[in-house]
Structures are given as structure tokens and as C-alpha cells.
Amino acid sequence: MFNAYSDAAPDLLDTAKNATRISQTIVEEQNNLDAFLVSSIGLADIGNDVIGNNRQALTEVLHLLVPVTDLLNEYNPALTCSLQGIGWLTHQPPLPLPGIVVSVGLTLGIERYRYPTNLPKVAATGGPQCETLPVVPKDTQPPFVIMDDGANPEQYGNPGILLNSDGLKQLLYGPIAGPPRNSMQIGMPG
Questions:
Q1: How many Cβ atoms sit within 10 Å of the Cβ of residue 164?
Q2: Who contacts 76 (Cβ-Cβ below 8 Å, separation ≥6)?
Q3: Given 7, 90, 117, 168, which is the most exposed site by the fewest CB atoms within 10 A?
């Protein structure tokens, strides 16, 4: 037992020396330590005032953020995939001409929106879709999500193209006096 004490004695003496140095440093830096503690107390008081006075508002904000953070968590794979795709684009050589390349097309119209029958239906399911992103193979297109959003272009028996002849006339010749004309009876009357 005494052998253990004799073996540990140098370490115990080093600890005592270090404790003495620490206490001397505290005494030497007493003014700085006091200033630090007073500043900490002031910061705590300000923090208590800010958080205490805004407790209800901060609680409401946190409750409002829960659905947003849940949705972001659900779509995390798709968001990550999109950001990786954007990162991939930054390493590509620049375009020969400055600007953005856009593929644009005109599509023929479908049956007009009718209230309340065509109110939007929130029914998309399937979660995040990432498929082949961030790098889509050449001459391919990632599949798109098919969902039931409440719109049915064939609902009124108009499976084909609807021609809005009155709208076309107004576009070409300006405002037309009188009621709308649809002499060919194409699509819905009016």
C-alpha cells in the first residue's frame, strides 16, 4: 500500500503544483473574471427579457414550423437530389451564348374552369420522386407523377379540341359589340 503511494507521489505533487498555478492565475485575473461574470449576468438578464416577453410568439412560431419541417423531412431525398443536380450543373462548361435555353410550345386549350366543380383536389400521393436525378441519361426523361387533382378535361363530353372562336375574333380584331357569337356551334354555346 505504501508502495502505491510512493509510486503516485510525483503525480500528486504535480497536481498540487498545477492547482497552485490555477489559483494564482485566478487571483491575477480577478478583475477580468469579475467583468466576465458581470457581463454574463447582464447577458442572461437580456436573454430572459427577450425570451420571456416573446415566449408566446416564439411558441406559436415553433408550432407553425412543425408541419413545414415534417414536409421538408419527408421530401428530403427529392430536395437533396435537386440540389445535387444544380451542383452538377455548376461544374458544366458554360453555354456558347449567355442566357437560358428553354423549350417552349403552345398547346390547345381544354374545357374552361367551372366553379365549384373544378375546385383543386389535394390528393397527390407517392412522396418524393428522384428517379435518375441528379444526372439524367441522354435522350431520356424522368417519369412524371400522375395524380388525381380533380380536373377532368372530358367531363362535359368534349374529348377533342375546343375552339373559342369569339376569343380568337377578339384577339384578331379587338372588342366585338353584342353577345358572343358561336355560329358553328363548336364546343359549348357562347
A1: 17
A2: 128
A3: 90
